[in-house]
Amino acid sequence: MPFSDQRAFSLVELMVSIALIGVIALAVSFSTGNSHQRAGEMKVQLATLQNSDIILDNMVQDMKWATEMRFFLVNTMPMPIGLTYRFVFISPDPAGSDNSTTVEYYWNAQKDLFRSVDGSEPVLLQTDVRLDYFAMSGDIITLDGTDRLDGVHVVYEVPSNNTSFGEYVSLVNTPVFN
Fold it and tell me: Looking at the whole model, is its pTM more than 0.85?
């Protein structure tokens, strides 16, 4: 059998085929790598959202039972917190004693959010919480010549993924508003 009758791929055709296979493999590898990286970023964003939702739920519960609410724009805390804004919610003791519970939320210049209960050491709740992404608006009523809050609408936005949580809180004890 003569070999000259058989056709085969030339060296150039083989090289072009190998180069095309390489380009296709590179494109598939790149898209797979991007999807893994994006999945990791999404996990971080989801954790941030879940944490933000838990923080808002806790803040709402602290507000709901308050008998007094105070808002400050003064630097009264020692470093390293470097306080820039503070909310104070004073609530009656759930056990019915004469003691009250004081819950304080702090923002600092580094955009960290802290929480303290009854003067304890503040606990870091979340970083990158800009105060301009947090809003409260209340229904102020006057009872016996005293301004009180009947309800508060709280909006808490997470800037890293442009998601906001909002909730209207009916305040059980119509707290004194300072």
Answer: no
